[in-house]
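Listing S7. Sequence submitted for prediction.
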Amino acid sequence: MKPASQMSWEAFHALDPDMQSGLLQKDGHIFHVLYARQFERDRLEAMGLLATRIRKIAKTVDGMHFLRDQLFHKRAMLYFTQPSTRTFLSFYSACQILGMAVGEVRDKSMSSEFKGETPEDAVRSFSSYFDMIIMRSAIGGLAERMAWVFMNSDRPVPVINAGSGKDQHPTQALLDIYTLQRSFEDRGGIDGKTILFCGDLARGRTVRSLANLLTNYDDMRLIFSAPAALTIGNDILASLTKRNVPYEVSADFERFIPEADAIYMTRIQDEWDSVKGESQTVDTSIYAFEKRHLAVLKPDAVIMHPLPRRNEIDHAVDADPRAVYWRQMRNGMWIRAALIATIFNCAERINDYLP
């Protein structure tokens, strides 16, 4: 196969994501991060161990000085033109942990896009000043296109997709996997677990990305529970079938709560409504985890949520030790620091650190 630098955008875009993944590396290492499916199991395990290592090193002053020395000579641009709190702050903090200087654009009206500049030209301009572009956009495929642009430029800086349209959110999937790794480390790991997804599964890019990553594990069972209008997409089901991962699609959420090792709740993604108020016509009242459900949930199960939430998890559930969504959010900072360290080839130095 030709390298991406010799491909037209049309040819690159037409490739299956699995085929694209091989072109998104540099010298055999991760470079651009666009899809969850780029990460195979051995890489997920290594990334989780590195995140835990960074977490432990950061507990001491000397350790923090060591970490900040790793990438003090690098700069990252956070180009977040779609609203974000957790993902933005998580990446910002991850960069700070590793000593990176950070710039940001969070409002297109404050950039030259207001004057008619294309997003492609805007992001290409950032590469003149920064060594990495971390981008979140409502425009599906924009991160993918910018990765191709940089692979065909004289300054090929890495691109991390921090959320792209309704389809991809690979680093959210990484933190979700890391949360599952830590939650099940005394229960034989992620293999053999039943994961119950509930909520807006049609437009929830976190669910789509995590479902793809879970195909790396053995004897998994995935259950998707949502109203018919918000059910999981056929492309995800086809991907699971291709990889021989058993799944069930059901409108009956409560039925599967006692069987789940992890429950992954999501809010209604009404920002993607084609007509304002469209989601309000869908009855989602039974797709909520209530305090009474704790009685039938396995004692060692976990409840997850990518946040923000609305009313799909009762606040009374927060105090239960099985509710790990706040821990899940913190995990994002550590796994994103591990990802950035991996891209810039300083993972080995971090793993070899002796206090």
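Caption to Listing S7: primary sequence and predicted structure tokens for the chain studied. The chain has a mean pLDDT of 89. The radius of gyration is 20 Å.
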